[in-house]
């Protein structure tokens, strides 16, 4: 007689990390981890621990706790998780095993933070998401690069323009801190999508914007918008549209990256990729939108000088929402610029530690196999 699903033991999965400037790479790792079990517990390190082992985080621990809680695959967040994952931690939260990406994570002393769970056979690995890292995003801000924009015939390509100690592409010296191409696919979008459609009785809410460097300000706004109805649709503007109204090298994250970052949020049901800047009657009718929301920040005019929310305002369904959070993407960029030297030093130290560990792995692999084939980052 087969056992009932209710009687079957739930597989509890543990993940931990800094989750600084939470991006779709973090979310994808957590999505893969959740797929290996039934319940996902995520430990998040404190600012003090991160500063000791890596250098200063961009987001505070309270911001990072909140961001991780909002990722749709996370069931529970453990605040102040130890930097080195122990068997005691797994047992305390009744987790069967720990999951991490296939990149290197070491302490300030160069020790693998997962060595204890690996030795106990309670460790599983998922693929790190190619094409994104917190280090890379910091580099884009400090270097004021625009190579990540998608324009014209390059809208769906990923160009490799240059590199630096801020790891802006795969030619950076460490294969972990360095950033390889992010190749957007329909499969990736499907994996992140809820796959849901609004029911006929659902009140559909629409918001639009850049949602660049997805942060707690965005999160609080989307939570408030979600509360206005039953089904939340987010329109994301193209890179060139965002650059038109924000200037400089904005957006920091390109359209493909922003789509996945927003889709990972538990309050969002659907995303319109490359939404028109002005909310049109056609858009509202197509998606059966009943409420259109915007935050209390100033609304730039469309290219022709018109109010982009003129139609929903005329229909009496526009709502200005005050989420109580005033954080903007510009605030995050200013944090980075104020601490530029600290972040550059942090990234250099991180890369040096990774290279030391990588060389040790290569030596061990050669000893066992006689060659370095299959070792990540090895170049003959």
TrEMBL record:
Keyword Transferase: yes
E.C. no: 2.7.7.14
Stretches assigned to the Cytidyltransferase-like domain: 14-138, 207-298
PANTHER family with a match to the protein in the record: ETHANOLAMINE-PHOSPHATE CYTIDYLYLTRANSFERASE
Residues annotated as signal peptide: none
Matching SUPFAM superfamilies: Nucleotidylyl transferase
GO cellular component, one term: cytoplasm
Domain of life: Eukaryota
One GO biological process term: phosphatidylethanolamine biosynthetic process
Protein name per UniProt: ethanolamine-phosphate cytidylyltransferase
UniProtKB keywords: Lipid biosynthesis, Lipid metabolism, Nucleotidyltransferase, Phospholipid biosynthesis, Phospholipid metabolism, Transferase
Pfam family, one: CTP_transf_like
Pathway connected to this protein: Lipid metabolism; Phospholipid metabolism; phosphatidylethanolamine biosynthesis; phosphatidylethanolamine from ethanolamine: step 2/3
Family: Belongs to the cytidylyltransferase family.
Gene Ontology molecular function terms on file: ethanolamine-phosphate cytidylyltransferase activity
């Amino acid at each position: 007689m087969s056992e009932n699903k209710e009687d079957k033991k739930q597989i509890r999965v543990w993940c931990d990390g800094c989750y600084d400037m939470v991006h779709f790479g973090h979310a994808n790792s957590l999505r893969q981890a959740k797929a290996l079990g039934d319940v996902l517990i995520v430990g998040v390190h404190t600012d003090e621990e991160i500063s000791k082992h890596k250098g200063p985080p961009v987001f505070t621990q309270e911001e990072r706790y909140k961001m991780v809680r909002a990722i749709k695959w996370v069931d529970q967040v453990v605040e102040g998780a130890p930097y080195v994952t122990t068997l005691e931690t797994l047992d305390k939260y009744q987790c069967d095993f720990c999951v991490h990406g296939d990149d290197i994570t070491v302490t300030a002393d160069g020790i693998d933070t997962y060595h204890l769970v690996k030795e106990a056979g309670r460790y599983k690995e998922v693929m790190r998401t190619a094409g994104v890292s917190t280090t890379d995003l910091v580099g884009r801000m400090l270097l004021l690069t625009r190579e990540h924009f998608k324009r014209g015939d390059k809208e769906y390509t990923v160009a490799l323009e240059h590199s630096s100690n801020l790891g802006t592409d795969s030619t950076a010296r460490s294969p972990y801190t360095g950033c390889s191409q992010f190749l957007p696919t329909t499969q990736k979008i499907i994996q992140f999508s809820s796959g849901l459609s609004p029911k006929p009785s659902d009140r559909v809410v629409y918001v639009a914007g850049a949602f660049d460097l997805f942060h707690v300000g965005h999160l609080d706004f989307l939570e408030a918008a979600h509360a206005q109805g039953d089904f939340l649709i987010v329109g994301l503007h193209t890179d060139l549209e965002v650059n038109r109204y924000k200037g400089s090298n904005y957006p920091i994250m390109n359209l493909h990256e922003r789509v996945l970052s927003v889709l990972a949020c538990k309050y969002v049901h659907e995303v319109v990729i490359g939404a028109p800047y002005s909310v049109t009657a056609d858009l509202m009718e197509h998606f059966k939108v009943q409420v259109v929301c915007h935050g209390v920040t100033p609304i730039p005019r469309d290219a022709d000088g018109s109010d982009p929310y003129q139609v929903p305002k005329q229909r009496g369904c526009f709502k200005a929402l005050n989420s109580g959070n005033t954080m903007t993407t510009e605030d995050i960029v200013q944090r980075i610029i104020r601490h530029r030297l600290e972040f550059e030093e942090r990234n250099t130290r991180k890369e040096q530690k990774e290279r030391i560990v990588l060389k040790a792995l290569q030596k061990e692999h050669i000893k066992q196999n006689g060659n370095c084939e299959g070792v990540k980052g090895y170049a003959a």
